[in-house]
Amino acid sequence: MPKKKLTQAEMPVADYAFYGLVWAGTVLTDRVDRALSKAHDLPVSWFEVLLWLASSPDPVPASVLGNSTMLSRSQVSRVVDALQSRGLVTRTPSPRDARSVEVSLTPEGHRLFEAADATRRECLAPVFTDLLDQDDLQALGTVWQKLKADKDA
Known about the structure:
Layout: H1 13-40, H2 44-54, E1 60-61, H3 62-68, H4 73-85, E2 89-93, E3 101-105, H5 107-124, H6 134-152
Antiparallel strand pairs: 1-3, 2-3
Helix pairs in contact: 1-5, 2-5, 3-4
């Protein structure tokens, strides 16, 4: 006898909300990863590092990238190695701490980020931003801030 799926009404609200977050994160990340890999040979983890670097006017300490991204410090190090080998980022010794390095985008890194960011936005529009209004997006931002604030506590 085939088993039926639970409906939203049969699931506790907190469980359904959690499932929704997991589903959305998995499906949207996979969609972006496929689009970025196909168009730019750029895995989503690399894009995440580029996003943080593009958002900063100054070079970013490698340790800050490890604390800011969804990647472990060792993953960040491998991603930065790969980005550097493609000429997209540079590493420079930190003027504040001789033991650490700072990472910044090269001009080619900025160009690739701009193109990849346009690809990301284009691929998400029909399944995310076009479906949600400003109130929805603001609510998601508020939820993310609450969840992140608890993580940082």
